[in-house]
UniProtKB/TrEMBL annotation:
<keyword id="KW-0902">Two-component regulatory system</keyword>
<dbReference type="InterPro" id="IPR003594">
    <property type="entry name" value="HATPase_dom"/>
</dbReference>
<keyword id="KW-0547">Nucleotide-binding</keyword>
<dbReference type="Pfam" id="PF01590">
    <property type="entry name" value="GAF"/>
</dbReference>
<feature type="transmembrane region" description="Helical">
    <location>
        <begin position="166"/>
        <end position="188"/>
    </location>
</feature>
<feature type="transmembrane region" description="Helical">
    <location>
        <begin position="33"/>
        <end position="55"/>
    </location>
</feature>
<feature type="transmembrane region" description="Helical">
    <location>
        <begin position="200"/>
        <end position="218"/>
    </location>
</feature>
<feature type="transmembrane region" description="Helical">
    <location>
        <begin position="266"/>
        <end position="286"/>
    </location>
</feature>
<keyword id="KW-0808">Transferase</keyword>
<keyword id="KW-0067">ATP-binding</keyword>
<feature type="transmembrane region" description="Helical">
    <location>
        <begin position="230"/>
        <end position="254"/>
    </location>
</feature>
<dbReference type="InterPro" id="IPR004358">
    <property type="entry name" value="Sig_transdc_His_kin-like_C"/>
</dbReference>
<dbReference type="InterPro" id="IPR003018">
    <property type="entry name" value="GAF"/>
</dbReference>
<keyword id="KW-0812">Transmembrane</keyword>
<keyword id="KW-1133">Transmembrane helix</keyword>
<dbReference type="InterPro" id="IPR029016">
    <property type="entry name" value="GAF-like_dom_sf"/>
</dbReference>
<dbReference type="GO" id="GO:0000160">
    <property type="term" value="P:phosphorelay signal transduction system"/>
</dbReference>
Amino acid sequence: MDIGTIGYSFAALLFFLLSVLLFTSWRGKLEGAFLLSAVFITALWHVSAVIWLQLGGVWSSSAYVFLENARNIAWFIFLFRLLVPFKMQAGRDARLFTFLPGLVLIGASLMLLLETINVLLIAAQQGPLIADLELPNHLGLAIIGLILIEQLFRNTRLEQRWKLKYLYFGIGSIFAYDFLLYADAFLFTHVDQDLWNARGYVNALVVPMLAVAAARNPGWSVKVFVSRKVVFHTTALVGAGIYLLFMSAIGYYIRYYGGTWGKAAQMVFFFLALATLVALLFSSHLRSRTKVFLNKHFFRYKYDYREEWLRIIHTLSDGEPGTQIRERVIKALADLVDSGGGLLWMRDESGSFQSVSHWQAAECHATLSADSSLANFFKDRDWIVDLDEYAGYPDLYENLQLPGWLEEIQYAWLLLPIRHHSELIGFMVLIRPRAPRQINWEDRDLLKTASQQAASYLALLKASEDLARANQFEAFNRLSAFVVHDLKNLVAQLDLVVTNAARHKNNPAFMEDAINTVDHAATKMKRLLAQLRQGRFSKSSSRVFPLAEALQEAVRGHSGFLPVPELQVSGEAGLVVADKDRLSAVIGHLIKNAQEATADDGFVRLEMDEKGGELWVTISDNGSGMEAGFIRDRLFQPFETTKGNAGMGIGVYESREFIRSLGGVITVESEVGRGTVFTLRLPVHNVQPSPDGMRSGAVAEV
């Protein structure tokens, strides 16, 4: 089988496949019928060329000539149909659009008839009706085809050329090559065999262009669907094939001119070529650039929405339930725009936004306050913030002020709000993709739609955590029933001591036993009370008092343990409004935690100072410290503890809730092996001097 037969056979196969696609999707539109007819006749013409090459003879030659003319006429009819919309725009030249197609088709049909008669006369061993008709005929038809393509391209508006340019390139390539072939034959009085053999391959390359044009023009009712995945992998295979052919040619010359080292050099070159190809095929950067190119130039829409949505659902649903869903949310949204990673912030109980997860990006512990410019922007507008666009055109975002910590996130690219039932529950920072790309309306719409789906998963996770926490509180309340039973036993013991004291108060043995009983009861009640402490206390009167007094009381209560806490008060002792006993207990709990985490020869220091209308209390130690993940995910959660069965895990949670109830804030900084710093910020209570010059309200109820 020669090279010409292979080329025409391959072209026939591709045109038949395209014919099947067009036929199965045809919905009765005239344009679709003309396109289907032209493609099918072109496929038959390629088959006739193969038969002529294999069998020869007058009849196979006659069929080839007849189908070639029929192919040209079919394409002319299709192109003239595309010219119809331009008739209304032609004005005075409308008559030209009315009569020209008929004249061309009549002339082409007449030439087809004359060539057919010539072939039949030659087959009957008679002279042709008109000598030397074939070459001028085919050359003229090729010129007419090029003129039609030029007219269509010129009259197509710029915004519509995107849909039709591959059709013009494809059909124009067919007629341009015919012009080259027959012009060469007309000059040299014979058809060049090499040019004729290559004609099949040239026609085969046109088929993908026609398929893309059909897909971009649904108005023809020819909805050819080509999966992006198929196009991507086909492009990769074709590119790899071309690369290997080129490398094989180089390897041949290396071996041919390499002398005694030729074969060895050829094998080394082939190994390097294959290694390079494998590296390129697995390059995520090259993959990203190829996807961007294909989406931009070969598809009407950038995304295959069905495939993208299935991939999002699979990413969100795959894996273990729990907090890992946050990472999967980041990955699902980042993959939509080929982002390199991202970070997720979620709203907490106070309304602020805390960093809760990250994927393929450095962790960031920054907090966004509820009244910040960015938070208000996301609440008022469902916009995605493109940081590149913001840097160039900040006015588009209506005086939006971005938080300073965004500059610490390397390669930050997009800020994406996450809404659930129109309520802002979080936002995401996406990292720049591997290949540079610009986002448009289609990217933004897909990201916002996908973020709403992701928000439902995040809201479900939050509801599950709240339910689990409520179940833990219920279990704790059930446990308190056993504690109450123990307290009743203790009360009974003490009641018995009181009852017998009147009769045995002068008995030394009784008194010693009574003291031991009271001591035991006091010790047990202290332990029970310590276990029962939780976020809610019985209501008591809040008072105005110096904060230093609560600090001193807490320090005195824990001075019997090592390391002994140290207290330093700077400036004037500020006043606060709180339940003094409860505040002392909160500070005492933090001191106790610091002592338990620090060696006996370490330090636990308390410092108080007034800054900007707030009282700052820091409790620092050089103990074992805590990991960032534990601080973020577990420290302030109830029933989370590092003490095993020795602790209930509600002390720090209760401390935070109490400080918040006072209008304050509690933060923590820690590093494993170096220690921890708790910072309490409480609002200062400002009092007006009384007429006698004394401060009023220092001990009054508020």
